[in-house]
Automatic annotation (TrEMBL):
<feature type="domain" description="PAC">
    <location>
        <begin position="78"/>
        <end position="130"/>
    </location>
</feature>
<dbReference type="InterPro" id="IPR001054">
    <property type="entry name" value="A/G_cyclase"/>
</dbReference>
<keyword id="KW-1003">Cell membrane</keyword>
<dbReference type="GO" id="GO:0035556">
    <property type="term" value="P:intracellular signal transduction"/>
</dbReference>
<dbReference type="GO" id="GO:0030313">
    <property type="term" value="C:cell envelope"/>
</dbReference>
<feature type="domain" description="PAS">
    <location>
        <begin position="4"/>
        <end position="60"/>
    </location>
</feature>
<keyword id="KW-0472">Membrane</keyword>
<protein>
    <submittedName>
        <fullName>PAS domain S-box protein</fullName>
    </submittedName>
</protein>
<dbReference type="InterPro" id="IPR029787">
    <property type="entry name" value="Nucleotide_cyclase"/>
</dbReference>
<dbReference type="InterPro" id="IPR035965">
    <property type="entry name" value="PAS-like_dom_sf"/>
</dbReference>
<dbReference type="GO" id="GO:0004016">
    <property type="term" value="F:adenylate cyclase activity"/>
</dbReference>
<dbReference type="InterPro" id="IPR000014">
    <property type="entry name" value="PAS"/>
</dbReference>
<feature type="region of interest" description="Disordered">
    <location>
        <begin position="342"/>
        <end position="364"/>
    </location>
</feature>
<keyword id="KW-1133">Transmembrane helix</keyword>
<feature type="domain" description="Guanylate cyclase">
    <location>
        <begin position="157"/>
        <end position="289"/>
    </location>
</feature>
<comment type="similarity">
    <text>Belongs to the adenylyl cyclase class-3 family.</text>
</comment>
<keyword id="KW-0812">Transmembrane</keyword>
Length: 364
């Protein structure tokens, strides 16, 4: 029959999270379970009876004395996200929790430290936090969401927004002014994309590419993309008002949107991977964008049909897309059907009234 100590050791060894016990006076490691061996790559024979600071000297900013002081003051120390650079140069992430260990008589015996390997989780967080809204990142990282990064086919709505006449504008200004312009423009556009929980795919020159429906898919992806597009045009009106007050030339963007099946996932090499979408649906969205004039939003018929219950628009002449036999019907978005966005709708209606496309102009 196991003694009490043996039972405690068996419990410690059965834990899937890393655990070690430290002497509260000398900071020597008294216990080091198998899970922690796996997480750290160190064997217990290498670490037992050695000081924590000696064993983990490569971890910066983790003073045992400071940790112990904080623990005695607060009762527990929690570090949910610690970025650690190993001697090999590899970056890993660790979650740490430290709490006092007491004897049956209530005397402080040591410090119990729980360590979790959260590397994969934090890499995902770092990767997606730049491209998607905070709440989407948390949903991706939750156990309820199983994210396939290797590449899969799924329906998405792709949005392209591009500054009209940017080349000529850039040639007439100093590089610093161009960078300032792009930073202001990109910042506003990205804020709108994230507000509607879209994914910022990339910047290409002065073009913003956003995706709705990846990495998370919702029934209203297309509607959110269109609402985002309308607000982007509205945001450009405010941006231009600020530019005109500063004596700067206004800029205008054209937006193209398409909905279809695409390959979604990480694409690239071992040295650089990007989460993106590729496929014919993306190409069509880009070509539709090329047809839009400043202030306009053009969408494919499939996109329009999926959100026609909330979006007002009118069809334009159909055009042929390279590699496709059937013409693509394109719609000019005029605004939202429901009340509540008069500024957006009026701006789009004004632009729509001046649009006059022909079949030749829609040859894409």
């Amino acid at each position: 029959m196991d003694t009490t100590n043996d039972l405690h050791e068996n419990i410690i060894e059965s834990l899937t999270s890393g655990l070690m016990v430290i002497d509260s006076r000398t900071f020597q490691i008294l216990s080091f379970n198998k899970a922690l061996e796996r997480i750290t790559g160190l064997s217990r024979t290498q670490v037992l009876n050695r000081s924590v600071e000696e064993v983990f000297s490569y971890v910066q900013g983790l003073s045992c004395a400071d940790l112990a002081r904080e623990m005695w003051e607060k009762g527990v120390v929690t570090r949910p996200r610690m970025r650690v650079t190993r001697p090999t140069g590899e970056d890993v992430y660790r979650g740490l929790k430290a709490e006092p260990l007491y004897s049956r008589q209530g005397e402080a015996m040591g410090i119990v430290v729980h360590i979790e390997d959260v590397t994969e989780r934090e890499i995902l967080r770092e990767s997606f936090s730049r491209y998607v809204a905070h709440q989407v990142v948390e949903a991706i990282l939750s156990e309820k969401q199983k994210l396939n990064l290797s590449g899969c086919r799924q329906e998405v709505t792709i949005l392209f927004a591009d500054i009209r006449g940017f080349t000529e504008l850039a040639e007439s200004q100093e590089p610093e002014a161009v960078v300032s312009l792009l930073n202001g423009y990109f910042s506003r556009m990205v804020d709108v994309v994230l507000k509607y929980e879209g994914t910022l795919d990339k910047f290409v020159g002065d073009t913003v590419m956003a995706v709705f429906g990846a990495p998370m898919s919702r029934e209203d992806d297309t509607e959110r993309a269109l609402r985002a597009a309308i607000e982007m045009q509205s945001e450009m009106v405010r941006f231009n008002a600020e530019r005109e007050e500063a004596g700067e030339e206004p800029i205008h963007i054209g937006i193209g949107i398409n909905t279809g099946i695409a390959i979604v996932g990480n694409v690239g090499s071992e040295k650089r991977m990007d989460y993106t979408v590729i496929g014919d649906a993306v190409n069509v969205a880009d070509r539709i964008q090329n047809l839009s004039r400043g202030g306009e939003i053009l969408v494919s018929e499939h996109t329009y049909r999926k959100a026609s219950q909330v979006i007002r628009g009118r069809p334009l002449s159909s055009g042929r897309v390279r590699g496709r036999v059937n013409p693509v019907k394109i719609y000019l978005i005029e605004g939202l059907k429901e009340e509540g966005a008069p500024e957006d709708s009026q701006a789009l209606e004004k632009n729509a009234a001046t649009s006059d496309f022909t079949s030749a102009s829609l040859s894409i």
